[in-house]
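All the exercises in this workshop are built on plain-text protein records. A record pairs a protein's sequence with a compact description of its fold. Read left to right, the backbone structure tokens trace the chain's path through space. Once this layout is familiar, the rest of the handout is easier to follow. Here is such a record, shown just as it appears in the course material:
>
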Amino acid sequence: MWIPTEHEKYGVVLASFRGTVQHGLPLEIGDTVQILEKCEGWYRGFILKNPNVKGIFPANYIHLKNAHIKNKGQFETVIPVEDTVITEMTSTLRDWGAMWKQLYVKNEGDLFHRLWHVMNEILDLRRQVLVGHLTHDRMRDVKQHITARLDWGNEQLGLDLVPRREFSMVDPEEISVTELYRLMEHRHRKKDTPVPASTHHLFVHVKSLMSANLGEELEVFFHIYDGRENRPLSERFFVRLNKSGLPKSPEKTERQCTLFVDLGSSDLRKDVYIVVHIIRIGRMGAGEKKNVCSVQYRRPFGCAVVSIADLLTADSKDDHLLKVYACNTESEWYQIHENIIKKANSRYNLSGSNTGLAVALQLLHGDIEQLRREYMVLFTRGVSITRKLGFSDVIMPGEMRNDLYITLERGEFEKGGKSVARNVEITVYALDIDGQMLKSQVAAGSGEPGADEYHSLVLYHNNSPRWAEQIKLPIPVDMFRGSHVRFEFRHCSTKDKGEKKLFGYSFVPLMQEDGRTLPDGTHELIIHKCEENTSLADCSRYLKMPFSKANLPSNNQTLKGTKESFWITSFLCSTKLTQNGDMLDLLKWRAHPERINDSLSKLKEIDGSEIVKFLQDTLDTLFGILDESSQRYGLKVFDSLVHIINLLQDSKFQHFKPVMDTYIESHFAGALSYRDLIKVLKWFVDRIVDAEHQDHIQQVLKASEYIFKYIIQSRRLYSLATGGQNEEEFRVCIHELFMSIRFFLSQENKGTSPVAQTQAVFLRTFPAVYGELLKIFTVREVAGFVRETLASLPTTVQADCPLETIKLQCIAKTVESQLYINPESRCILLPVVLRLLHAHMKEQRDLVMCARILTSMLSLIKKEESGTAEPVVSEEVQLIVESLLEVLMRTILEISNRPQPAGPSMRLQFQDVTGEFVACLLALLRQMSDRHYQQLLQGFSSKDDLRDFLLQVFTVFRILIRPEMFPKDWTVMRLVTNNVIITTVLYLSEPLRKNFLNDKFDYKVWDSYFYLSVIFINQPCLQLESFSPSKRKKILEKYGDMRVMMGCEIFSMWQNLGEHKLNFIPAMIGPFLEVTLVPQPDLRNVMIPIFHDMMDWEQRRSGNFKQVESKLIDKLDSLMSEGKGDETYRELFNSILLKKIERETWRESGISLIATVTRLMERLLDYRDCMKLGEVDGKKIGCTVSLLNFYKTELNKEEMYIRYIHKLYDLHLKAQNYTEASYTLLLYDELLEWSDRPLREFLNYPMQSEWQRKEFLHLTIVQNFDRGKCWENGIILCRELADQYESFYDYRNLSKMRMMEASLYDKIMDQQRLEPEFFRVGFYGKKFPFFLRNKEFVCRGHDYERLEAFQQRMLNEFPHAIAMQHVNQPDQTIYQADAQYLQIYAVTPIPESQDVLQRDGVPDNIKSFYKFNHIWRFRYDRPFHKGSKDKENEFKSLWVERTTLTLVQSLPGISRWFEVEKREVVEVSPLENAIEVIENKNLQLRTLITQCQNRQMTNINPLTMCLNGVIDAAVNGGLARYQEAFFVKDYIMNHPEDGDKIGRLRELMFEQAHILEYGLAVHEKFVPQDMRPLHKKLVDQFHLMKSSLGIQEFPPYVRASPVHFTNGSPRTCRNSVPNIISPDAGRGVTRRRSAALPLSYPAVNRYSSSSLSSQASNEVSNITGQSESSDEVFNMQPSPSTSSLSSNHSASPNVTSSAPSSARGSPQMAEKHKHSRENACLSPRERPVSAIFPNPLDPAQRAPPHQIGDNTLPRSDPNLSAPDKVRPTPSSWSLDSVKEGSPYFSESLGKQLCPPVPPRPPYTVSAKTTTSQSPVPNSRSPQKSTVPPFTPSPTECQSSSLVSSSPVLSGSYSSGISSLSRCSVSEASGTEFPTSDHPPPHPLAPPTTLPTSISSSSDEPIRRENKTPPPYSVFVRDNPRRPVPLPHSLSIPPQTDPPALPPKPHQLRTGSMKLDASDPRVPRPRPLPRKVSQL
């Protein structure tokens, strides 16, 4: 049976409980639980930190604690009954525990360990407090220590400041806000600025003296010395050291340690030193033998000095090793320390190289009692106290001291018949009145006990010795009278006996006859001669003799004339004895009544320290004189009393005020004095107005507090003695006195007049009188006195009058006095106080004091609230509200809007005033009840007044919410503020609704209200989600969630607005959106529907809600980038609004808006999540690109688009993606034009013209293209800028630009560029960010990055992703999985610019750019077997699956990766695959043979290996396998459609054999001797291969066309495909296969099976075109050959093969190595001269033609001069034939823009398009080539017809085929075009040998423009087809009319980098509105 518990309510878990039983609650040790029910040894309850989960747990696991229960019942809360410090400690340590672990995770080791120590320390202290065995004082100290540690930890961890009173936390609800503010401020100040201690102490611990030559005991004396005044500041500290240099009494620490006490702050200067004198005890000479004498002398040893300023920096006890110096001459011993300080090096030297005194020195700060507590060990172990000479800065009453310090200064002695000077030693004795020696009263210094006598040090052979030794005589006061000090002088012999002979003495009495002590100062004493054996035991014999030369009578010339003298300096420090005779005369006034007048007059001249010594005696004397003769001495006694009272105001003597208070209470006996005091005081007051000199009167009024104390005490004594007689007379006297006071106060004077100053003096002291008056008068009477007195002050307020400030100070003291605390007096005084306060606050003067007064007033009201005086308090609140509320708010407004003062102290004061006024306002508002609000609102006479009041309140509240209003850690204060604000707002919303709606609607008030509400909800201190669970729980329990309360209030007020809502659309959309982003579900549910309301009203007004949409989108970006909003919000926003608009007529457009906003949120959330990551990675860049495109294409937000362009640009720069950074910045550049329109300041751009900004962008982009080694793109921009400069005749910049352009060309040719790898990445699964989810991308890898490294990088970026191990497309389960899957593999780029790549002689440096830039398409080949695999010959079934990926944008672009837009998969048959493999191998062989023959190869090994690989593989079944697979009857029967391809394969095989034969011939020529056997083997194997292929003799067409080149080499391939084999073949190792293995190759080729031949070939041509799709043809360019022409041979069509454009899938090696090998092998001398020919314009870099004539007409580059525009020859490629060309081609060429690279040629060759031309290469010889005509071969004619009938054109061109024969063929075939404006729609296809195919219609230029947009455009491609453009030399112009003259440069450059927008057929990105003029 479960029973509710009565007492067992709260407990702590002693051991962890797993909660494995049914309904069990798991517990951790240390958890606190609240118990609800119990049952047979089990409890049911919950853990306090998680009250929602309830369960059962064993009772014996719980330690019960006493607790106090609030709200008993279902919702009860339990508060443990224990010390509040313990409670705080427990909760704080729990909070720290979690944060402490986080410190470890964050690697903040230092704080982690420090916090760990502090937590352990707090736990130890907690145990001590819990045990409860501490004394009260110790408990206080422990609690203070705990709270200090808690505050330190809270500060370090950034937790809140805890308000405390007496170590206990205070509940902010139980004290007034003003008091809470004071507590917070006090703790904050304490934390910020510790009060500097005024008293300091120096701790000295002597360790040892280290020296090589000790052996004698030492005496060490320390004292503090003032170097400025050259005097000691302290007595001496004396330590004895043994012969080893260690302390003589190590067990007695007080003899080694001392505390120099009571140093003032002024003593901590650079010129204050610690001086150490060291005396040795031993023989006269340090080096004397031991047996010389046994007598010991005190002799000088050394001195050390250290400045006190050096210790100020040392926090702990630091050991110092002090250097010890000795003086050069003993006579200067007395000033050795001065010489060391002055650095007079000639007078001292180091006493030994390794001599040093080891001491520990530490400065301690604070009161001595405080030190006793803090350094308890120090004082318990023992430390001697070394006092200051004289009293400390502050003299404490009760301090007992009676020390006489005598310094033995110097002496003058006669030789005494000796030939050398004496060795004088002084012995000092103190003797009492009877001549008896005072035992232990002569002290050399603190540290050692006093002795009976003191021996001075001995200075060797010196008759004028100077000792400067100080001794202390602590003689008791009662023994002082009659005592004297005797000095005996002895000569110390250095002879064998070493005896000391007495030869004289001096003495000095300590007190004079009249009771005065020996005066301070230097005294010259008489040396009385005596014999060696004279007895001085009977002192009466010499005491009658004179002792000082100053006291000698004038007739005693004998003693005055003696030369011998002895000087001493005496100084008395006594609290009981005086050296002042006037003081003694006053105290003994009865003995000498005639001296009273003089004594009273001289009292003011006596030193204050003498008066306070005898304070009580002096006061008794004064009142005794007053009682006896008040008439005669009354005024003088009053003056003396005033002097003494004012003396105690001095800071040095202020501690004696309690002594006077005690005297008044306990010892004062002047019962009749009050009459005289009142009378004299009134006499002074009455004379104020007329008196000329006010100084004396002001002194009297200063002392009025104590005068009243004496008056009141005297009257009380009189009443006690007489039973209250003369009461009425006394009251009358007091009333008359106050009337006089009121009269003088009412005088109006200028602020500087003496009377005004006297008024100020009185007002300062007046509040101190209240307490005294209350001892006799009632509270109401005293309040009446005060009210009337204060009311008598003149009311005119003068701004510069200092009296106004004093008035306020007086009011402040009144409000803080005991009188004001009483409610009775308060209602009398309050109106006066409020009147003065209102006047000052209205004038904004003395605000600090006003704040202080107001704070005190409101603190008192709070105190009384819970008492019985509720109606009185309510009345007071009403009075204050009426008088001060408005002026208080105005004051806060004005202070907050003032510029803050510059000085730190002023700023601090400024903040304090604001804070105090704010606290006062909050306190006042918190006190106000419904009735107060009603009265306040009723008090407004008009709507305008109420409106102004509401605006003022809302404005002030906005100021209170500012983060800078309170320090960061004042959360408690902020929560109280917010609680008051929301309460007040709830009160004020009703009058707002009633008075300012409908026809009286006031936008400004409502706007202010909403604005306040929004910033209220968004405050950081109310975002409970960011707090720890315990803190959140406390806040919710105390205040609830104030955000929800305010949100409901906003919603309620919004609903009341009705049609006035339109006034707040769109202004309030942003603020309300910010509120809905607060992660509080209830608040979101309340606020999101407001957007539906806004859409509805906006729809009614304008028929759409574009404004709402626009504002939402704008604000979302800024708010979400600040970290607001989350996925939950996105879903909630979507669902709530969709639900709301279900029944609306505008539902469709509403859904569209919501969808747009939701999609934007998705992207913004992804962007924010990515940006949280540390380093720049692809995820960040990809996310930014996605958002940037969304803003442009879907939202059309130009400004946001440009902002994100720059964010992306910064990311690229950070990641050093300079090329991508350039492309990104070009997006902004493209939005600008070359115009002079002004642009506003935007981002980091200054205000400038559009031209200037575009110029700056161009230069920046060129710089980044340069850094990214993308020089070709930079050149285009350089040219554009150059044209601009040229158009403005800015030749200086034009020159620089041309030089920059030239430098970029140089870099292209000279610098090495790395070839990047490309990778396809698929992101599958729902866990990826939106912009990646289930999409595939192609990524450009980093430099040197291979597939493995790239995969690792991607897995690091997505650590939770799973790498897929296959390349197949994933299925739907993967797409929909709640995981991340990455699929990565390498892909091969398909270059667009085939033209450059196919040219001969174009350096690889140039080609490399076109291979890897502006790439839209990529390819991946996957071999597979279709059907059953033939084990004997796998080539029969080996197919290749070729995947082509088309991207949305070309790479490189604004990102390193772009999404795949289109995926095409084709299957390559085994036969086609075989054709490709053999083509590749033939290409490789030709290249190597050519390189070897041209001696471009230093090593023949690559050719050897290649020949060996092909021949060996062929012998072992390589080519034979193809024969078996494809040449068998079965295959030909089953695949009749492959007849052409089989023929093509046969041709290629024969061609390969032919090349091998020629290659072996070349190889034989160059093979070294040691490789001859291998060569022979290759020749043998080749014959075997030929026979295996069935080749006995080559077919006729092969024989007719032997492989013979001019230099014995086949021609270099003009298709610029890189070599398969390269020296650095390592890169391709992973993809290397045997030569015979067929691998995928970049292009699918269709071939004709017919044979082609020509009669005029001199080379085996291998240059082929390649077709990638049905509408894509290659651009062929003629190139001169390296060999001369020969007419005897013809090339077989079998040999004119089609080579692929890339070798990524080559059988042996990767592309890069092959490419680099080709570079290495081509020498510049033998490089084809085609390098001088221009490249047709690369479509990826082409600028569109201008609108000059026909808009598609090509235009000449303006930079090309007229003579360079050469016409081509129609019949021959020799240089002689230029003049015969058609005039048209020159014109058409003149209209084409040349590309930036390769460089411009001296002449341009163009084929005539009216007749098909075949290029004939120019000879390398300077002689012009003359070519005889040849007849066409029938094979060639057949070939023509075959090709023309083929649907796919394979363009191949051979530089060895005669153009003449080609001409006749084409003419015979009827391939001539009519030269008309309209070419035929279906022209005939050219023959195979034609350099390129002619386009089928005249729109070729259009297709060229569609081909590739500028490489840096964000280009949305609508058409996936990407036709290859014709080179300009072969393009068909639409008309033959000559063009107009080219325009001037500035007319040509309006967008050379952009697409032509005027052509309607050109797809364009979505246009942006032209807002750029502002950006």
Observations:
- The radius of gyration is 55 Å.
